[in-house]
Amino acid sequence: MMKETQARLGAVLLVALQAACMGASHARLEEPVPASRMETQTGGRADVVSTDELLAVQDVGTAFDALRKLRPEFLIRRGPPMPTDPDAGYPVVYLDGQRLGGLNTLQGIPLSSIVEIRYLRTAAAVEQLGKSHPGGVIAVSTRR
Question: What's the distance, Cα to Cα, between the start and end of the chain in Å?
Answer without folding.
Answer: 70
